[in-house]
Q: What sequence folds into this?
């Protein structure tokens, strides 16, 4: 482990490999590259002290390089104990000069020590993925709150927590819900989570999905992605939902929908993507068949009642990297992937760079927008303006070599009038 004022990371010798992988991701992030070129020229973030609690991956590294190019004084820590790519953390520090506090597999004590280390930077702006940074600010580091202009939040779970803080009247500065931008949740959550979750499950287990029954808990954008990718690989998909509209949508998309307790006895593979607590609970675990596999693609491992699983088991052993086998008293064996943490970043590399290109373009432009507009904003959760969303989508299309039509003046007039009819 390498520790210094520059950060806390595993091994400096990993730097060259991290640099190569960061550059590999960069080639699929053309929108962020265009933003970085403008940032380097205009310096919109000059003088801003920024603390980021994000997944330390090759894609995040390209965001960090962009923010630094824009003038930000940036420090980073991990937003999940298992999501860090150690070579990337080393390269961020040694190649790009961005202090990074992140070690794959760090325990809870080190995890929060790292969060406090980036808060010691006395930030003016936060960038969070899951709201652990902001919640720490509001609980144990309140002396720093007067310095904060505003923040950005990357993921669904974090937005849920922030809206709870807003509703309770405890949120002390404005936060942009980057996750709620169309060019984030419709692509990152659906295509990114869908592909990367299935990728991670296959890497960890080497199972064949064709012919198996896959149970997806939650049919939001992430759940849609996981279900469609599993179905595309030949799995029989069951969806569990509490929202009647989403449940109906899943039925119309061709999936079986039923209560979780019924699906528990049928499933070969279970994937949670809800952002809620104990969606796989003891009564589900008790009914699972021998050989069942459980994975979580939500931000926190709270989605699976792991203490209940521990109580049901008479033996636990690690059978493969990221696969723990729990043996019940009757001999049944149930397998938990990545300790119940978000499987796509724990057992694989997270989302492909091409989809994170849009998500992190939202983060970069969100930081710029926050700096300009924070004084007009209340301590609430906001979404980015539609115009920025459409700008990112247009840049992505252009990078893909795709052009689209535009409305004629006559068509615009027609759409903005009420006089014309049959």
A:
């Amino acid at each position: 482990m390498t520790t210094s004022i520059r950060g806390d990371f595993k091994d400096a010798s990993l730097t060259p490999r991290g640099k190569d992988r960061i550059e590999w991701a960069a080639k699929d992030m053309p929108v962020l590259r265009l933003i970085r070129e403008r940032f380097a020229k205009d310096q919109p973030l000059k003088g801003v002290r920024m603390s980021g609690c994000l997944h330390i991956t090759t894609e995040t590294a390209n965001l960090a390089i962009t923010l630094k190019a824009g003038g930000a004084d940036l420090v980073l820590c991990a937003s999940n104990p298992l999501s860090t790519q150690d070579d990337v953390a080393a390269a961020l520090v040694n190649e790009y000069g961005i202090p990074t506090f992140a070690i794959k597999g760090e325990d809870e004590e080190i995890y929060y020590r790292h969060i406090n280390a980036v808060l010691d930077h006395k930030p003016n702006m936060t960038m969070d993925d899951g709201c652990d940074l902001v919640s720490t600010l509001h609980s144990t580091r309140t002396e720093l709150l007067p310095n904060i202009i505003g923040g950005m939040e990357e993921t669904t779970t974090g937005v849920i927590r922030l809206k709870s803080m807003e509703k309770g009247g405890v949120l002390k500065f404005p936060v942009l819900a980057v996750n709620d931008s169309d060019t984030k949740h419709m692509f990152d959550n659906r295509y990114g989570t869908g592909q990367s979750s299935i990728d991670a499950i296959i890497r960890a287990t080497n199972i064949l999905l064709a012919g198996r029954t896959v149970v997806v808990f939650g049919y939001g954008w992430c759940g849609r992605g996981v279900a469609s990718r599993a179905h595309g690989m030949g799995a029989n998909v069951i969806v569990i939902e509490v929202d009647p509209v989403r449940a109906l949508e899943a039925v119309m998309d061709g999936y079986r929908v039923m209560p979780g307790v019924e699906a528990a006895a049928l499933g070969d593979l279970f994937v949670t993507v809800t952002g809620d607590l104990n969606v796989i609970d003891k009564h589900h675990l008790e009914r699972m068949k021998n050989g069942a596999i459980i994975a979580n693609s939500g931000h926190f491992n709270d989605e699976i009642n792991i203490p209940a699983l521990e109580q049901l088991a008479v033996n636990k052993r690690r059978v493969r990297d990221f696969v723990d086998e729990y043996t019940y008293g009757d001999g049944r064996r149930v397998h938990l992937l990545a300790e119940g943490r978000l499987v796509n970043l724990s057992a694989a590399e997270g989302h492909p760079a091409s989809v994170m290109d849009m998500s992190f373009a939202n983060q970069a432009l969100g930081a710029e927008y926050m700096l300009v507009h924070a004084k007009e904003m209340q301590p609430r959760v906001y979404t980015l303006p539609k115009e920025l969303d459409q700008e990112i989508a247009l840049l992505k299309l252009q990078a893909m070599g795709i052009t689209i039509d535009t409305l004629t003046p006559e068509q615009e007039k027609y759409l903005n009038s009420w006089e014309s009819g049959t």
In short: The two ends are 74 Å apart (CA to CA). DSSP finds 17 helices and 17 strands in the chain. The chain has a mean pLDDT of 95. Residues 182-205 form the longest helix (24 residues).
